[in-house]
């Protein structure tokens, strides 16, 4: 049986043994460490690309943060407006309900006022009347309408009209029925008699009548 000899160029296969001992067994000297292969260098321009990518990410994050902040501010403004509207509606509903109740008591308060004007508010009736007026006052009910105050058509109802030399503007000269209000809301306008300045008296002052020189 003939076997072919291995080619000269063909390498022989076999285990590779590397001696990693620090002391040379033949000479007894310390072996110098083998030179380590240098670390691969980073590709040129890699740092610049990484820096540019980082700047773009920071800019994107800032833009998103600005948008989210604007959304939060808009949401807060909407909530504040909603809360104010709810509070305003709540106050309006309370005043409306309170006004309806107090309006039913106005005739009673009128009777108390007339009794007081005629000195008939005495005894137990006086105590009850004062307690009722105190309670309605705590609830915000205010009585208004006085002689001599300027006439205001938004809070006064003129039932009588005349002229007077004693006034310089349209004024209340008599209160026929007092008015009542809660805050700025008028429950009942004051019914009054009003007087305008007397045009004849004003004309006489303008003409300047001569005084009496005496005899």
Describe the fold and architecture.
Its main location: cytoplasm. Keywords: Chaperone, Cytoplasm, Stress response. Homodimer. This is Protein GrpE. Belongs to the GrpE family. The chain is built from 3 helices and 6 strands. Helices cover about 45% and strands about 15% of the residues. Strand 4 and strand 5 form a beta hairpin. The strands form 2 sheets. The chain has a 3-stranded antiparallel beta sheet with strand order 1-4-5. The chain has a 3-stranded mixed beta sheet with strand order 2-6-3. It is rod-shaped. The longest helix is centred in the middle third of the chain and has 72 residues, at about 45-115. Among the domains are: about 55-140; about 145-205, Head domain of nucleotide exchange factor GrpE (Nucleotide Exchange Factor Grpe, Chain A, domain 2, Roll). The model has no long low-confidence stretch (mean pLDDT about 80). By secondary structure, it is α+β, with helices and mostly antiparallel strands.
Draw up the topology in text.
Elements: H1 46-117, H2 123-138, E1 141-144, E2 156-164, E3 171-177, E4 179-182, E5 185-188, E6 190-197, H3 199-207
Parallel strand pairs: 2-6
Antiparallel strand pairs: 1-4, 3-6, 4-5
Would you summarize the structure shown here?
Residues 1-62, 194-215 are annotated as: Disordered. This protein has 215 residues and is α+β, with helices and mostly antiparallel strands.
């Amino acid at each position: 049986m003939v076997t072919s000899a291995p080619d000269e160029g063909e390498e022989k296969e076999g285990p590779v043994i590397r001696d990693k001992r620090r002391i040379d067994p033949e000479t007894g000297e310390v072996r110098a460490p083998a030179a380590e292969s240098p670390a691969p260098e980073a590709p040129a321009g890699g740092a610049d690309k990484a820096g540019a990518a980082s700047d773009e990410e920071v800019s994107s994050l800032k833009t998103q943060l600005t948008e989210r902040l604007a959304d939060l501010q808009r949401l807060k403004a909407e909530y504040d407006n909603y809360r104010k509207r709810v509070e305003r509606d709540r106050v309006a509903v309370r005043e409306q309900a309170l006004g309806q109740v107090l309006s039913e008591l106005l005739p009673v308060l009128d009777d108390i006022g007339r009794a007081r004007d005629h000195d008939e508010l005495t005894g137990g009736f006086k105590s009850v009347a004062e307690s009722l007026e105190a309670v309605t006052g705590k609830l915000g009910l205010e009585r208004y309408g006085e002689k001599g105050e300027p006439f205001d058509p938004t809070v006064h109802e003129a039932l009588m009209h005349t002229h007077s030399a004693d006034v310089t503007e349209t004024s209340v000269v008599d209160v026929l029925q007092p008015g009542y209000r809660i805050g700025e809301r008028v429950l009942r306008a004051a019914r009054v008699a009003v007087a305008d300045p007397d045009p004849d008296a004003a004309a006489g002052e303008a003409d300047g009548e001569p005084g009496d020189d005496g005899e």
